[in-house]
User: Fold Group II truncated hemoglobin from Nocardioides astragali.
Amino acid sequence: MDDGGSLYDAIGGTDGLRRLSDSFYERVLADEVLAPVFATFTPDHVEHVAIWLGEVFGGPARFTEAHGGHQALLRSHLGLRIRDEHRTRWLELMGEAVDEVLPGQPVVRDALMAYFGWGTAIAQQVSQEPVGTDLGDPGPIPRWTRQGLVK
Ligand code: HEM
Assistant:
């Protein structure tokens, strides 16, 4: 079946994801709802998010190999106490970033936003637990295609 290829390729690989991550963080840091949540932001985040998304969307497993894998990602969100309004705003700003970086690609947009809807719910849930919580083994980093989560 022709499934249109990986989302990673559709976005333009790691460079495309860097552009997406850059555009997103520019918006976050200028946003009065989210900027305070990202008070510990450093420029490394842009690259780390691009690497994470690359692995999720079918690119190389670089987050697993060099950045602590699924568990490290979950741990980054511990203690943030993300509220509904934060998550809603996160999704709005990511939607704007997708529109800027990938204009005129509604099918890819829908697939990305479906992942972000799913992933932000997990981030919000984990963020209610205090820093240092033992998360156990969360398993490998999830993979997401145009058909959704790979089971
Ligand atoms: C699909 C959803 C999400 C993904 C893929 C994601 C990805 C990431 C990644 C890769 C990092 C680590 C950055 C680094 O180590 O440099 C990170 C950290 C962070 N994320 Fe998320 N995130 C998501 C949802 C959210 C949401 C909904 C919020 C809040 C509204 C949020 C707030 C933060 C903050 C504040 C940090 C920095 C924590 C620190 O200082 O280490 N994230 N996120």
Remarks:
- DSSP finds seven helices and two strands in the chain.
